[in-house]
Amino acid sequence: MYVRSGKSGKRRAVPMGVQVAQDLKGYYLRERESYRSGATADSLKAFMLNNHGNRMSGDSFWRRLGYLAEQAGFTDRIGLHCLRHSIATHLLEGGLGIEQVRDFLGHRHLETTQIYAKISKHYLSKQIC
Questions:
Q1: CB distance 117 to 104 below 8 Å
Q2: Contact at 8 Å (CB) between 65 and 80?
Q3: Which of 3, 40, 49, 73 is most enclosed, with most CB atoms within 10 A?
């Protein structure tokens, strides 16, 4: 999936599995339609709409993630930023190079990516040996 204009106007490529693509297609074709009635012309350009038909804000995503985490039984608060840390770590542990992770996260400098990526001892030991 390509995000044409993300944070700071950056274009990003976001890999996704077949199931996620099917779920997003289902949302777009079925669920999103139920929110369109209250949408403005500008909101209709957005992929994700809230219950009022408006473009979802970062705060809306944060609240929704919190609700889903609570339903899943998580006791700690989980934020959207936590997902970035997790994704970076999983990509690195899965064998993706730090430069590719940097590009995926949209960072300009490798040092920024290293801060985000909480690399496990297991991954580090594989890289050093």
A1: no
A2: yes
A3: 49
pTM of the predicted model, to two decimals? 0.63
Closest CA to 119 of 98, 89, 91: 89
- Per residue in 19-74, pLDDT (tens digit) is 999 999 999 888 888 777 767 777 778 888 888 888 888 888 888 898 999 999 98
Residue 35: both structure tokens together: 């929110």
Check if the beta carbon of residue 4 is closer than 8 Å to that of residue 11: yes
Choose among 129, 40, 117: nearest CA to 86. 117
Contact call for residues 92 and 101 (beta carbons, < 8 A): yes
Phi and psi at residue 75, to the nearest 5°: -95, -25
